[in-house]
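ingest -> validate -> predict -> emit
validate: passed (alphabet ok, no gaps, 181 aa)
predict: started
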Amino acid sequence: MNYQFSNDWVTHRTNIWEKVIPKLSNKNNFLEVGSYEGRSAIWFIENGLSKNGEITCIDSDYKDVFDSNINICLKNHSDKKLHKLTGYSYLQLALLISKQKEFDLIYIDGSHLAKDVITDACLCWNLLSLNGILIFDDYLLQHKYANAKIAIDLFVDMFKNNIVYLYIGDQFIIQKVLTRF
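emit:
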């Protein structure tokens, strides 16, 4: 049985991910905000997570194809786990914060509206481990309903003393570090 994807928004980004993921000291716990059909989650399971690693996925409306694709993946990677959270990202992220969860890598690819992106980013910052990596998707996307760049620029300006820039292009990738003055 093969994966079923209607779009490929992942493959052209993996060469960047392959360069930044080795910068992680731990690869045990990943978080994805916005999962669609599971293509990026599957890539992280197959290529990023350590043995016995876990990925938590948040999406407001999972499709059956997500479950089908993830089941295929986990059959081949039975040492890894996926936790699926359904609902608005800000509610699920707040719940993870209340449980004091921590993630080595966080991939934000949910809503592309600035108000949602800044909310997700600030909540995810509280979940990101020291030296963890935060990946923002669609940084340069130009669309009348997508203005993630505004929020990402504001976020990195607010936290500029705690980040190292790893990549700026169609994605914006940073690493969380101790405060630098």
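The chain is about 35% helix and 25% strand.
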